[in-house]
Amino acid sequence: MSGPKKLLNIQLTTTMTTILDNLLLNDRGIAFDPVSGDTYRLVGPAVHLVRLLQKGADDAALLQYMLEEYEVDESTARRDLDVFLGTLEEMKLWEAAP
Amino acid sequence: MGGGAVKASAPCIAVSGLHRGENPQPGAGIIRSLRRHFPDARIVGLSYDVMESGIYAEGGPDEVHLMPYPAAGGKALLDRIDTIRKRTPFDFFIPTLDAEIEVFATLHHELKRRGIAVCLPGVEVLKRRAKQHLPALAALCGVRVPETRLASDVASASEAAHALGYPLVVKGPYYDARIVHNFAQLAAAAGHLLSEWGHPVILQNCITGSEFNVLGLGDGQGGWLGHCCIRKTQLSDKGKGLSGITVSDARLSSLCARLVRELQWPGPFEIELIREETSGDYFLIEINPRFPAWIDFPSMLGANFAAALIDILKSGRPPGSVPDCPPGSFYIRHQIEVVGNLNRYADLLKGEPDTLPELVDEPWNKFSKTKSPA
User: Fold this and answer.
1) Domains of chain B by range and CATH?
2) In this complex, how many residue pairs, one in chain A and one in chain B, have their CB atoms less than 8 Å apart?
3) Which of A13, A97, B91, B240 could link B236 by a cystine bridge, Cβ 3.0 to 4.6 Å?
């Protein structure tokens, strides 16, 4: 999975699940699902990306955050974001819109 | 220290189930919770075995008395209680073991007549939450249970297994559960459970998923004073929760509330469920008529269910609600060694009341020719 096209595709066909919406986050990179008891470790920009998603940020806002906070070109940022969202989807935190 | 050491205002509370070994009993956790809220309380330990580790634990009971096994019957238990109360007239009793609760539930009036406050369900209510009757209760409450069959011998267990398919869980009516994958394992497990606990053995489909436990305190009128939900995060070989984390799921709470309402459950309970991995549905596994071994965990978070129980028994009416436990706190079971004392051990064996720890004043070489207490 790479490239801006794929990223755009994810943006258009996926939505945040209730699980992601309800995740409790701390600044040390631990996310906790209070319903299932599942615990996640978030590294690097993932904590901020999840916080942004919980606030309803769209793909452009996520990408903007990556570009502003990290010394990275747009292509690399899009690829990393794509991988991150793909991981969320695999973990069922991010799913296809009904 | 005898009964005279009890302060007039301090409650005197008897607690059973003091062992904290591989399969810990609730009593030691209850005592810790009680001491947190009632620092002056006098705690009387009722023990069924001199090797119950909680007898010797720091902060444990102020005195310990051996009890006859529940199988000896109600009269034997009451006679022993009468003898103990001549020395230390305890006012409250928190039984913690399934087998003794079955007997004490029939002695409600006898205990009350003696001035012992205890919170127990009636015999019929107790029966409705027994493992073999759970499917009927669950159906009334709209709760799922694993498909269940009962068997009274190995042959009928084999027939039930044929209908259910393997793997399946085989359970005794009170304790013990084993997963079996074929007839040979089933025959061994069912034979063992039948000889150990009597019939029926309960056979159920295996549900794959995480285990959730809910403890609470029913008000006897269909409501509760509070509850605490955990997901077990580490299991021992025997399936006991070595660690757990508090969760907050409205669906889980609502399901448990329906069971408590239907039973009009009075007092402590623990509801065990599995959340099926594939469907996300909760399956009811067991309802225990007592506090669980992890009772002191919510107490450390400010939800002291053991103290609330004594408050109910003292006032005869429910006190304020027990606070909710915030999700995301976890416990880890931490086992330590406790020091026993042969003087105390000998006193208990003789039927003498055991008291607070004394320093060991006999060198071990004097005991070199005696058998180990183990």
Assistant:
1) 12-118+340-369 (3.40.50.20), 147-205 (3.30.1490.20), 208-332 (3.30.470.20)
2) 27
3) B240
